[in-house]
Specification:
Elements (H helix, E strand, L loop, with lengths): L1 H19 L17 E6 L4 E6 L12 H10 L6 E6 L12 H6 L4
Parallel strand pairs: 2-3
Antiparallel strand pairs: 1-2
Protein name: MIP18 family-like domain-containing protein
Pfam family, one: FeS_assembly_P
InterPro entries: Fe-S_Maturation_MIP18, FSCA_dom_sf, MIP18-like
């Protein structure tokens, strides 16, 4: 039974990442996952999710709305019972956290 739960949390994690890739920073035409704003996604056996993320800057204009959007969209994923988003600035975001795809999209490669 525990093997099944492990598979479920891994599958759920993948579904959550898929949803995160639909959320965009309004100032940059790249999704927040590829931008490197998502530091970690935790899924427990009760299908409760905790997302550790950052913003491009502490004064980011979407500091109030982006975490709420992430929380609401993740809660729409089947099997997710709850979602909490925690914002951190440690380590601070930098362009080094962006995926190759994001850097290519923004002409940084």
């Amino acid at each position: 039974m525990s093997d099944q739960q492990t598979i479920d949390t891994a599958q759920l994690g993948e579904k959550i990442v898929t949803v995160l890739k639909t959320i965009y920073d309004p100032e940059i035409p790249v999704d927040i996952y590829e931008l490197g704003l998502i530091y970690d996604v935790f899924v427990n056996e009760d299908s409760e999710v905790k997302i550790l993320m950052t913003l491009t800057t502490p004064n980011c204009p979407v500091a109030e709305t982006l975490p709420v959007e992430v929380e609401e969209k993740v809660k729409t994923v089947d099997m997710v019972k709850d979602c909490v988003v925690e914002i951190t600035f440690d380590p601070p975001w930098s362009q080094d956290l962006m995926s190759e795809e994001a850097k290519l999209e923004l002409g940084l490669l």
